[in-house]
Specification:
269 residues, alpha+beta, coiled coil
Length: 269
């Protein structure tokens, strides 16, 4: 035989029990045996007086008849009957406080349950929020991977790098041209901003020469090949290829004319 679980205590049932407990005579309740062990009195604020008892209010009386009239007990003894009466009396007397204690415990358990549910809902909301954030990060990561895939195995060539640098320099010159354009007007032309010449020289890799700077100049031409300055004669800079540059007949002007451009990118000893 499978034991069935008792029905849970519904809020309505709990309210009914609570109402009955609050309406009953306030405790504490106690029991008093008298009549030669044949009767038990249940009373509120019971107090023995030495020759009996006194109480604020009588609640109930129990005697030995229950077992005598119980068909389930074919044979019984007075001791058995009286023990049962005592057990029932104690149960009823303690029910006044036991019910209140159980209701208080039930309220505490339900409060803990409600708090746990609130915590769980908050945790679920946080998990949902984190899932949303993770989804966004995953999408962003995928975009980065797609961008990186464009460059994996396809490193830009020197020519591509030079073309990019050339576009940058052209863009700088276009800005300078736009700044110079007002000075070309017929009437009241404004002066060219001082920064234009400085920016143009910087874009072209032109640096102010210092006679005390003995470092060699490093250049890169229009094809991406590197050059190293070897000597200066009569204002002409002779250069040689950076790889094995021991001597050379090329000059910065000749390389610029042949490759389209030459720019200083650094200096060394």
């Amino acid at each position: 035989m499978v034991a069935t679980m008792p029905d849970r205590l519904s809020p309505q049932r709990e309210a009914e029990i609570c109402e009955r407990a609050e309406a009953a005579t306030p405790g504490p309740w106690g029991v008093y045996e008298f009549g030669g062990g044949s009767l038990i009195e249940i009373a509120a604020d019971l107090e023995e007086t030495g020759h009996g008892y006194k109480a604020r209010r009588g609640i109930a009386r129990l005697d030995e008849e229950p077992l005598d009239n119980d068909p389930a007990h074919d044979e019984w003894t007075a001791e058995e009957d009286w023990a049962q009466v005592e057990a029932d009396a104690k149960f009823v007397a303690h029910a006044r406080d036991d019910v209140s204690a159980l209701l208080a415990e039930l309220a505490a358990v339900r409060a803990e349950r409600d708090e746990a549910r609130a915590t769980l809902r908050e945790a679920c909301d946080q998990v949902a929020e984190r899932d949303h954030e993770i989804g966004g990060l995953t999408a962003e990561l995928e975009q980065v991977r797609v961008e990186l895939a464009k460059y994996v195995g396809s490193e830009p060539t020197i020519a591509e790098g030079i073309a990019f640098l050339s576009r940058c320099v052209e863009a700088v010159h276009e800005v300078c041209d736009a700044a110079e354009e007002p000075s070309l007007r017929w009437e009241n032309p404004p002066p060219v901003p001082e920064w234009v010449a400085v920016v143009r020289e910087a874009a072209d890799g032109v640096r102010a020469e210092d006679s005390n700077d003995r470092r060699r100049r490093i250049y890169i031409d229009g094809t991406g090949e590197a050059w190293l300055s070897l000597s200066h004669e009569n204002g002409v800079c002779y250069i040689g290829r950076l790889a094995g540059a021991l001597d050379g007949d090329e000059t910065t002007d000749s390389v610029r004319e042949r490759t389209g451009s030459i720019r200083e990118i650094g200096r060394c000893w």
